[in-house]
Amino acid sequence: RRSGNFARSDAKKFDMTPETQKQIQEIEQTGDKKLRLSRLLQLSFSLCRTDPRTCIRLGEDALKLAEELGDQEAIGKSYYRIGWAQYELSEYSEAIEALLKAQAIFEKFGEQKGLASVLHALGNVQGAMGNLADAMTIYQRALELRRSLKMLIPAADILGELGNTAFRRGQYAQALEYHY
């Protein structure tokens, strides 16, 4: 189990804030399906860490709507949101399942930015599960993509993940290389 807010057996229940409830009501009243889908994806993204249960619910709503519209990129994003939220809840098997679906979609359609995000999340899940060698391999692929897309800040985040993972594996010299 990973340490953090959601890994404890007595994890707090997530109550939606009044602002989140209001946003959901506004989204539900949106007549334009593409606009509703966009808003569902935006709100679910903003809640992945702070309210993962609501993120999953919104991600599932977005997934249904994206499938109805045939929007493959939105389907991939929906699976990514769902998988990330499941990771936050330490539901690792479910997270992997959702993230692998997102990965397949992004790979099929050449969506490199989304693929890099999914790989980063998959690396996090593998690391949380103690599969550190797998996490390193996945992080390396995510780093290559981020660099090729010239996404320097996200690439720096992945370098930090690589350094932390190398440290956890006892590879202290390699950890320093990633951090510096």
What does the model show?
By secondary structure, this protein is mainly α. Helix content is about 75%, strand content about 0%. It has nine helices and no strands. The longest helix has 18 residues, at about 50-70. Residues about 1-15 have low confidence and may be disordered.
Poorly predicted parts:
1-13
Sheet-strand content, in percent, reads under 5%
Question: In terms of structural class, how would the helical and strand content be classed?
Answer: mainly alpha
Round the mean pLDDT to the nearest integer and report it: 90
Distance between the termini: 29 Å
Output the number of helix runs: 9
Q: Note the run of SSEs as H and E.
A: HHHHHHHHH
Radius of gyration: 17 Å
The major β-sheet equals: none
Principal-axes geometry comes out as: elongated
Count of β-strands: 0
User: What is the percent of helical residues?
Assistant: over 70%
